[in-house]
Amino acid sequence: MEQYVIKGGNPLVGDVVIGGAKNAALGILAAAIMADEFVTVTNLPDVKDVNILLEAISETGAAVVRDERHTVRLNGKTIGSCVVDNSYVKKMRASYYLLGALLGKYHHAEVALPGGCNIGSRPIDLHLKGFRALGATVSIEHGMINTSADELVGNHIFLDTVSVGATINIMLAACMAEGKTVIENAAKEPHIVDVANFLNSMGANIKGAGTDKIRMTGVTSLHASEYSIIPDQIEAGTFMVAAAATRGDVLIKNVIPKHLEAISVKLMEIGATVEEFDDAIRVTSDHRLGHTQIKTLPYPGFPTDMQPQIATLLALSDGTSIVTESIFENRFKYVDELSRMGASIKVEGGNVAIIEGVEGFTGAAISAPDLRAGAALVVAALVAEGYSTVDCIHYIERGYECFEDKLAALGGYIEKIPVDDERAVQKFKLKVG
Ligand code: UD1
What we know:
four-stranded mixed β-sheet; about 25% strand; globular
């Protein structure tokens, strides 16, 4: 097991290149196995969630050829099993996309019930409602979701809650269904559009992705394609916040600034400078920032996956900020850790954080409670006076590629060392002074 050791206080300065979007990659990899020809996916992030899904895909018998770190070639022609029950997959939420993909292609799928970050109850009733609407039967037995259909027929499906996962899963299940499918109240996140574009590049007929009404006409087969995944909105946003929090100056490259607007607007509102270029964004700050109110919302609103990072920044800003989490019910677990570094945050009713900004944090031994909160705590440690250790970094590695290397290249004092290795901590301290 490994942890980060961090010395805070150095502004992040320089350029960082953002990788492909994890959440788009997960939908795209599942979609790729629906073709019986080789599909090439580039700009693939080399993160744990993606690698676990690729392992699960190869267990179905599909060909998975990792030509290089950020490129994979997949071919679903050799799939021999529609059962996905590997112990890793149970820990990863997006394994449920294999349900939609296998059901859509073979009319049968059995996948272990998904886990994922523990940020509140995460039902999948809407995914299953969608499958049923297409004519499938669904049952849950012994921890497995079992779905099958004699035939899948397009339908009009209304999602009671805006759900990224359900929207993608229903697109997967419906793209080869007989006739027309309409998904109403669909999620509009950039990765929905990316998965739809990818499916269309394989011959699917999907219109309206990126709006709340997706219209699809089923096709009989999907074919070879080569596709580059969009940049990761949340990785980019995390570096934007890290730049602002450390009073740094970072040019964040390979991004789509439009996807970052909700984050840019809030950073500018509290006093940071944000400059947009065609495919880059620069965030600069040289002073203590101000307070604001933020509510997480489905895209194009402020992303819930950026909530812990922005709350960490606001905990250092001047005045009282209020952050309301409206997507997940249990997403403030990191507040206890942040408080140990000196933050003053009160959580009310489980979903509202009242943040009294403090002048600074002090280093502490802290633990990442989930993926995005883990990243936020790393940002906190990069600002804090003195040394911190952050353990449970396996959460962070689920979604950030070479996080510590990218931060270190910007001047952050951070290193990955074995847990409980006091000598490694001492060595780090000697090195950074
Ligand atoms: C995806 C992202 C996650 C992000 C979230 C919201 C992936 C792999 N993960 O998660 O990083 O935080 O979108 O942007 O892309 N809900 C139901 N029933 C369902 C499905 C969802 O009630 O069947 C509810 C959830 O409890 C939650 C809300 O809908 O309150 C949104 O969840 P959803 O958009 O589905 O999140 P995920 O797809 O799990």
